[in-house]
Amino acid sequence: MKRSIIEIDEEKCNGCGKCIPNCPEGALQIIDGKARLISDLFCDGLGACVGECPLGAIRTVEREAEPYDERKVMANIVKQGANTIAAHLKHLKSHGELKLYNIAVEYLKEHSIPVPDLDGGKLPCGCPGTLAKLLKRDVPKVEDLGGGASALRQWPVQLKLLNPMAEYFDDAELLISADCVAHAYGAFHRDLLAGRILVVFCPKLDSDLEGYVEKLAQIFTNHNIRSITVARMTVPCCGGTVAIVEKALERAGKKIPLTVRTVGLNGEMED
Fold it and tell me: CA 68 to CA 160: how far, in whole Å?
């Protein structure tokens, strides 16, 4: 069957192992100095490991793969103890995979293994980037939001659609932003976009990350880029935004001033 599953670029992977703790299913292991997917059966394709890779070596792709088997995964997970069981259940629940979650709970009950209380106390793992969370704040009055003018200077903005030879990149200051930033940060146009050319993509959900590295490298090579501001969310998976830009700079052999701005889930600028 064709489904979402992770893919590891062995040339980029340095075997650091940072992805391993974020795969409670046990689909990843370090073998011969590289992270490797040991079984399609264990990979749920949700990509919890993607944002933990500092080199952008992991991505999710659509390909023919053996169906994910929750019962076989649970047989492996229970050997690793209560914390791993809790991490896996939280992982499934935070991604809305209730069918798989129910299968996992059923497996635990069949084998007389306690089902962790996910609502009480802090549990390991979980994916902050997909965890459903109501942001508690007062609803602002419409008149208080203002009708600020758009600072957008070009179209398109999505990296997949951009022409790397477009003239608007000449002598430009770039804002390379993760998709979610503009929705989370209310002053996006005023504080981040004003005076800059915009490039947006998602390091977790977009599939052609290698193509993104290449296109950014072309932009950096063929134009005099004066500065780069990378805007990312605080969630771990968004770290891939910075990694892709840094990889593109390395490929282009360019040293361009780089600033990283991080936005919290409550819309505050963290740095």
Answer: 30
> Domains (ranges, CATH) in the chain?
2-110 (3.30.70.20), 152-263 (3.40.50)
Type and span of the H or E element at 85:
helix 82-94
Please give the backbone phi and psi of residue 196, each rounded to the nearest 5 degrees, phi first: -120, 160
Q: What are phi and psi of 215, to 5 degrees?
A: -65, -40
Q: Is 60 exceeded by the pLDDT of residue 146?
A: no
**Residue 99 burial (CB < 10 Å; 0-12/13-18/19+)?**
exposed
Mean pLDDT of 142-161: 78
HEC readout, 18-81? CCHHHCCCCCEEEECCEEEECCHHHCCCCCCCHHHCCCCCEEEEEEECCCCCHHHHHHHHHHHC
- Structure confidence by residue, pLDDT tens digits, 34-75: 888 877 778 887 777 876 788 888 888 888 888 888 898 888
